[in-house]
Write a structure and sequence with these properties.
Helices cover 72% and strands 1% of the residues. It has 16 helices and 2 strands.
Length: 363
């Protein structure tokens, strides 16, 4: 637990410093409330990723000071591999001029570095015919960078409300850490615990009031860290089904794929933002119309904050079966199918304004 505490404390302090001295950097770090995906009432610093990165860097320093074993080296290498995608996201947070394609390329570069340097390689999928292809290094590299890049971008997609992406990621890492304990993988456990600490240190300031945001840098770094933790767990432990990775990431990945499909049907670019993600519909159809608080700033941030627990619950629904049946591919495949069907049902019900009364915060 020391690793989580160190990462959490440093992340908390860095976030505090960013908030405390926001006036000194607000002209290039503040996020306004205008835009199709904006649901907050005041300006806040969108460089919370610096706090998460600071917590992870402190974790690496702590591990290096306490020991020089393979765990310390692996965690440090993983963080260094994540520098390109974090830097690209942070540059966008500050300049607003980094095109989505360049951020995606940075995510692929980070994934390739982790594949080569840390050994985070997708080499099996328990899919007939595919595993043979994944035995070829170039196929494994291609598959890995695409998969990690997709998950990285998925966390940027779900980062729409206070605490949503950070807590969802922390919950996923908790499930990864649980299985890491079962198989005795201390590297993956350290990656998971360090990530949880860094995320919770930031989350303290982000939820419920939203005085600081992850920003693209934080969302991309979070997605990268979670994706690599999952890949490392599967590649280092043959007892863990590859479909465990799919199941624990079911919510962000389903949201990403459904978003791409939805925009494709409408003839729009997948990189173009829209206002009909599941979390946005929950805000508009369930939370916005079933909570009190007025239309002022307090009412806005309260409804913003109350949206995230719905999606945390959805994340937990994907994590419980993954933790129960992390060895069994057939069961996990069935659970993935059930989750996707359930997601589609929920989305359709909310779109048609048929949100069930038990889903509302009040009658």
């Amino acid at each position: 637990m020391e690793t989580m505490s160190v990462a959490g404390l440093v992340s908390w302090l860095v976030a505090l410093a960013i908030v405390r001295w926001q006036h000194a950097h607000a002209h290039f770090t503040s996020d306004d409330a205008n835009g199709v995906q904006k649901f907050h009432a005041w300006q806040a610093a969108r460089i919370g990723g610096v706090a998460v990165a600071g917590g992870l860097a402190a974790l690496c320093g702590w591990l290096a000071w306490r020991s020089s074993d393979a765990v310390a080296a692996g965690v440090t290498q993983l963080l260094v591999a994540g520098v390109p995608v974090f830097a690209a996201g942070l540059a966008e947070d500050v300049t607003r001029r980094v095109a989505p394609r360049w951020r995606l390329i940075a995510a692929l570069v980070s994934a390739a570095l982790a594949w080569w340097w840390v050994g985070a390689q997708v080499v099996r999928a328990d899919v007939p015919g595919l595993d043979g292809w994944l035995a070829a290094p170039w196929v494994s590299l291609l598959f890995t960078v695409v998969a990690v890049g997709a998950v990285t971008h998925a966390f940027n997609v779900i980062d729409g409300f206070n605490g949503l992406a950070s807590m969802s990621a922390a919950l996923i890492l908790a499930a990864v850490g649980y299985v890491a304990v079962q198989v005795g993988d201390w590297l993956v456990l350290t990656v998971a615990l360090g990530g949880i600490g860094a995320l919770l240190g930031f989350w303290f300031w982000n939820w419920p009031r939203g005085v600081i945001f992850l920003g693209d840098g934080g969302a991309y770094l979070t997605g990268f860290w979670v994706a690599e933790a999952v890949v490392l767990l599967v590649v280092r432990n043959n007892a863990v089904s590859p479909w465990f990775a799919v199941m624990v990431l079911a919510y962000p990945v389903t949201e990403l794929l459904f978003s791409i499909w939805r925009k494709w049907r409408r003839g729009r670019s997948p990189m173009q933002p829209d206002g009909v993600h599941l979390h946005m519909l929950i805000f508009r159809r369930l939370v916005r119309w079933s909570t009190e608080g007025g239309e002022g700033p307090v009412g806005v941030w309260w409804r913003n904050a109350m949206t995230s627990p719905y999606l945390w619950a959805l994340t937990v629904f994907s994590l419980l079966p993954a933790m129960l049946w992390w060895r069994s591919t057939p069961v996990l495949v069935g659970c993935v199918v059930a989750f996707v069907v359930g997601y589609g049902w929920m989305y359709r019900a909310i779109v048609r304004f048929r949100g069930q009364r038990w889903l509302r915060l009040r009658g």
